[in-house]
Design goal:
Layout lengths: L22 H14 L3 H17 L3 H17 L3 H17 L3 H17 L3 H17 L3 H18 L2 H17 L3 H15 L3
Helix pairs in contact: 1-2, 1-3, 2-3, 3-4, 3-5, 4-5, 5-6, 6-7, 7-8, 8-9
């Protein structure tokens, strides 16, 4: 599985910014710091404590963000089923709040979890759903980033032909925007996938 930087949904869903006066938020912020320094056990403990406190206060945004971060910790620990459980909890809250941006962030993280579990059809479906969202929002950057994720899924699934076709789609998007050199680079990647091993 490829390493991907994980975007935190708290950059999209607002969390009450009470810092040290709110113990739940303080635990959450501490967890983020531990996660940044790859101290996963401490991060998991801090996010778990924050989650409990957010639940006690029925802070839905806090619950979604802590669940998301626990998913990120599990993903880095390659505990994919646990990661999916946390992401799906955050998903339910974001869906109730009709928050498509956070849902897209969660979708990208769920793609990685499905890849880790070798559930490639589910990962492809999520990528296609994300493509629909980015395409309908006229977001070519989001489309290209999602297509790159899709290439990784296809390669990991052993489907080099679909990966090569996806690289060509990326190349055509770049060509539309007169990014000739970038487009040529993706064409070369497609050709390399089609060469006999």
């Amino acid at each position: 599985m490829t390493k991907t930087a994980l975007q935190s949904i708290d950059s999209i869903v607002a969390v009450d910014q009470k810092k040290s006066s709110d113990p739940a938020q303080a635990q959450y912020e501490e967890g983020k710091e531990f996660l940044k320094t790859n101290e996963l056990a401490q991060a998991a403990l801090a996010f778990h404590n924050a989650l409990l406190a957010f639940e006690e206060n029925d802070n839905q945004n806090g619950i979604a963000n802590a669940s998301n971060q626990l998913g990120n910790v599990c993903l880095q620990r390659q505990e994919y089923e646990k990661a999916m459980m946390h992401y799906q909890r955050a998903w339910g809250i974001c869906e109730k709040q009709d928050d498509p941006m956070s849902l897209n962030v969660l979708s990208a993280q769920l793609v990685l979890a499905h890849q880790g579990l070798k559930q490639f059809p589910e990962a492809v479906k999520l990528c296609l759903d994300m493509l629909d969202t980015y395409h309908s929002g006229n977001n070519p950057q989001g489309v290209v980033e999602t297509l790159e994720k899709l290439v990784n899924v296809y390669i990991e699934a052993g489907d080099k032909a679909k990966a090569a076709d996806t690289y060509r789609t990326i190349a055509s998007i770049h060509a539309q925007y007169k990014h000739k050199n970038i487009a040529e680079g993706f064409i070369k990647k497609a050709q390399a996938l089609e060469e006999p091993a």
